[in-house]
């Protein structure tokens, strides 16, 4: 049951973390709109594959940081600060162009690999999220099996979100392009989690 729990938590936070418009999901939308479904699916698969090691690296960094006695004593407070900071950063205006100017052709898989490697924000994201989830007692990654269940969930969550974008591109494109809510929902979720952690720390 623990394996399923950590998998689902990794899946959920990866899914919502992949929502904000960026190079990867805008590319997926473009391919979906052009009905290049096979290329788009290979691109999504490549993104998901890279999500796995990036999430794993993020967890390893979290292990290193949380092994410090000072961090252990103030774990709840640090988790609250990290989540609140991530929330604020996500709510700030993005400098990434969300236009459909770039067209990706040929091998969607190779392009997905390259763009994902050049977009390593998943590492600090998963480092912060893992610290927060552990501080709240929502996950336990004490075994190799639990760790890989969690990381697998992050990869599958990213694949699920990108697949939705592919098959519902025509319906979702206007929302992803123009809706402010789509852009700020992940930031609001992070901010609420951070404030919740502050509340638990002060109680």
Brief account:
With 203 residues, the chain is mainly alpha-helical.
Summarize the helices and strands and which ones pair or pack.
Blueprint: H1 2-17, H2 23-33, H3 37-66, H4 69-73, H5 75-91, H6 108-117, H7 122-135, H8 144-167, H9 169-178, H10 180-202
Helix pairs in contact: 1-8, 2-3, 2-8, 2-9, 3-6, 3-7, 3-8, 5-7, 5-10, 8-9
Please give a structural write-up.
There is one protein chain. This protein is an all-alpha fold. It has one domain (2-95, 105-202). It is built from ten helices and no strands. Helix 5 (75-91) packs antiparallel against helix 10 (180-202). The longest helix has 30 residues, at 37-66. The protein is globular and about 55 Å long. Residues 95-105 have low confidence and may be disordered.
Name its key features.
203 residues; globular; mainly alpha
What global shape is seen?
Answer: globular
What's the number of extended β-strand segments? 0
Task: Determine the number of helices (DSSP H or I, runs of at least 4 residues).
Answer: 10
Topology order in helix (H) and strand (E) letters: HHHHHHHHHH
Mean pLDDT over the residues: 77
Please describe the biggest sheet, giving its number of strands, its sense, and whether it closes into a barrel: none
Which structural class matches the secondary elements? mainly alpha
What are the segments in which pLDDT stays under 50 over at least 5 consecutive residues?
A: 95-105
**Alpha-carbon distance between the termini?**
30 Å
Domains (count): 1
Measured as a percent range, the helix fraction is over 70%
**Radius of gyration computed on alpha carbons:** 17 Å
How much of the sequence lies in strands comes to: under 5%
């Amino acid at each position: 049951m623990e394996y399923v729990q950590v998998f689902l938590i990794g899946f959920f936070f990866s899914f919502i973390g992949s929502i904000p418009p960026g190079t990867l999901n805008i590319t997926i939308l473009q391919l979906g709109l052009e009905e290049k479904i096979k290329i788009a699916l290979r691109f999504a698969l490549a993104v998901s594959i890279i999500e796995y090691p990036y999430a794993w690296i993020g967890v390893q960094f979290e292990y290193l940081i949380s092994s410090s006695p000072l961090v252990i004593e103030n774990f709840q407070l640090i988790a609250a600060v990290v989540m609140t900071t991530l929330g604020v950063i996500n709510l700030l205006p993005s400098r990434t162009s969300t236009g459909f100017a770039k067209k990706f052709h040929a091998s969607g898989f190779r392009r997905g690999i390259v763009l994902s490697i050049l977009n390593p924000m998943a590492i600090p994201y998963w480092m912060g999220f893992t610290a927060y989830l552990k501080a709240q007692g929502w996950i336990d990654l004490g075994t190799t099996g639990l760790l890989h269940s969690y990381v697998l969930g992050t990869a599958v969550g990213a694949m699920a979100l990108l697949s939705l974008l592919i098959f519902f591109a025509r319906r979702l494109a206007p929302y992803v392009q123009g809706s402010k809510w789509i852009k700020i929902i992940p930031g609001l979720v992070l901010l609420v989690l951070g404030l919740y952690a502050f509340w638990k720390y002060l109680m």
